[in-house]
Input
Amino acid sequence: QVQLVESGGGLVQPGGSLRLSCAASGSIFSINGMDWYRQAPGNQRDLVATIARGDITKYADSVQGRFTISRASANNTVYLRMNSLKPEDTAVYYCNADVTYLSGIKYGRSDYWGQGTQVTVSS
Output
């Protein structure tokens, strides 16, 4: 019903920058909030940044001041601008969306995940 496609990951040197994108498509009535998570090998998946209705944003302490989450409602896309990247930022980054969808004549609400994009910070 709803698909999330991430892009923008890659290899970057410490101190560098990347911008991740996540585009949502499908039977979307509205998007209630979108988040970025990350998961390093052997670790749990952790919340990095979130943007809610009204563009209210919150960040994990580890990325506060370095990462910026934003959204383009017109095309159901969320971005994560990552500056001053550190080796400890290396992980697979996942997009999550809280979506109200339309199925036939019924509405429903569910969370959806993207497939993940690898970010590697290394010299």
